[in-house]
């Protein structure tokens, strides 16, 4: 169940997450690395379509550009898609607005020892461990 991602030149899996503005996970899809990103984003949206139909705006990175993607997202959950792209004028690292929320969530998840490497054989098990790690993070916040 491991695919080869030609863009990143790696073999493995992709983790697609949908988070709210605070970085808490709404949906997770784990697939082979060679799966197309736009299709998996739509699969992530269809995880819990009734709850996600309340979304109004979805921020995505440059990998999810395209009018067809925005149109299908609008039909699925009546949300507007806003692509956050990196400026070509500026070289090197730059903090993109709202993009850091997803990256921060990934860094929270990597703190979980089981998610630091991909130990699982089935993608469903990886998804379950991601949800479990997020439950642990949310419980710690409530306890504080």
Automatic annotation (TrEMBL):
One of its GO terms (biological process) is DNA transposition. Residues 3-136 form the Transposase IS4-like domain. It comes from Crocosphaera chwakensis CCY0110. Transmembrane segments: none annotated. Pfam families: DDE_Tnp_1 (PF01609). GO terms for molecular function: DNA binding; transposase activity. InterPro entries: Transposase_11 (IPR002559). It comes from the Bacteria. This is Transposase.
């Amino acid at each position: 169940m491991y695919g080869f991602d030609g863009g990143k030149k790696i073999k493995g899996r992709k983790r697609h997450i949908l988070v709210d503005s605070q970085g808490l996970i709404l949906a997770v899809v784990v697939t082979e690395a060679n799966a197309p990103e736009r299709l998996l984003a739509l699969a992530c949206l269809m995880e819990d379509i009734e709850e996600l139909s309340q979304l109004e705006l979805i921020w995505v990175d440059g990998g999810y550009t395209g009018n067809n993607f925005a149109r299908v997202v609008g039909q699925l959950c009546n949300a507007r898609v806003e692509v956050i792209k990196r400026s070509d004028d500026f070289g090197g690292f730059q903090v993109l607005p709202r993009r850091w929320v997803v990256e921060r969530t990934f860094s929270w998840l990597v703190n979980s020892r089981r998610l630091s490497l991909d130990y699982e054989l089935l993608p469903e098990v990886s998804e379950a461990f991601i949800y479990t790690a997020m439950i642990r993070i949310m419980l710690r916040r409530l306890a504080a």
